[in-house]
Amino acid sequence: MTGSKENDRQAEPIFVTRPSLPSLEAFTESLRQIWDTKMLTNAGPFHQELEHRLGEYLGVEHVSLVNNGTVALIIALQFLERRGEVITTPYSFVATTNALIWTGFTPVFVDIDPMTCNLDPARIEAAITADTVAILPVHCYGNPADVEAIQAIADRHDLHVIYDAAHAFGVRDNGKSILGCGDLSTLSFHATKVFNTFEGGAIISRDAAAKTRIGHLRNFGFVDEVTVVTSGMNGKMSEINAAFGLLQLKHVSEEIEKRRIVSEYYRQALDGVQGVDCLAVADSVAGNYGYFPIFVKADFRIGRDELYDLLKSNGIYSRRYFYPLISSFPMYRDLPSARPANLGHAIRIANEVLCLPIYADLDLETVDKIVDLIENG
Description:
Layout lengths: L4 H6 L3 E2 L8 H14 L7 H14 L3 E5 L2 H10 L6 E4 L6 H8 L3 E4 L11 H7 L4 E5 L10 H11 L2 E5 L7 E2 L2 E2 L6 E5 L12 E5 L2 H10 L4 E3 L2 E2 L10 H11 L2 H19 L5 E3 L6 E2 L5 E5 L7 H10 L2 E2 L26 H9 E4 L7 H13 L1
Parallel strand pairs: 1-16, 3-4, 3-5, 5-6, 6-9
Antiparallel strand pairs: 2-10, 7-8, 7-14, 9-10, 11-12, 13-15, 15-17
Helix pairs in contact: 2-9, 3-9, 4-5, 10-13
């Protein structure tokens, strides 16, 4: 690394993620077809085909496309008949909790399992009150939450479960998609995700009746030209986004495989580096390798933020994801459940985490440089 850092800084910066793009020629042909149909939105042919193709790829039956992952969460929560408290995690992107506020729910934070970074089922039951109506877990970094334990709790207390599966596109556990768990699961197809449609998202539901209702909620409540049955919003995905998604879907398996190689290379290279831990993932999980978080422990040679600055100064843009905790933001910090004493594991993990760059065309020589900077500075 000596003598090369200045050149590295002048080269193209290395970000946490970078989307793979279809050929310009293929996308231009899709645009031509959209122009020919003159149908730009409102569940056109590209939209309908993408819903079908995603269902096949993901191993789920009922897919409803929307225009982004936050809208997916809002519509999924709007789907619920009751309002009240929703138990959720403070360790997520802020959209998870913002969606609760937008739909009239009260968030109740529960600590995470420090090994998985997911909502700790052992702490959920103690947080349930007469006002609790649902649980909103996150499959953090695409690592599946303990869906069986969470569902058992929900069943005992007559609660809904909606999964924020923004990170979990294509993730399977014991060969089965995790997107069929709970009442609904929501996906994000933001440009930073493994599968993207520029902007976009989806809701996975259990049955056709739920999909029909979600269709009303994402389209102003319309059933037909003159019938409105609910106070829906404009959450539709455009034909252009759907066309881009169909092109991306052709290559997403290859994208995930390339990410797997990078992820395993990181793990091998970081093995034995004192004070750096990698996220534990069960052998039964087939992930999408959307993120590569490390945890900088107290016995590492420098602090987490110092490491973040060191990487940045060398053109490596890691991310402290998720830091700070949602519960520390001014609109949430006064909630009783946001007290730091309740969230010890989440606070510690938020102060340790650093997501390293990972994407399909990240070459292993660059990974070596990143690991060398971590280990030696």
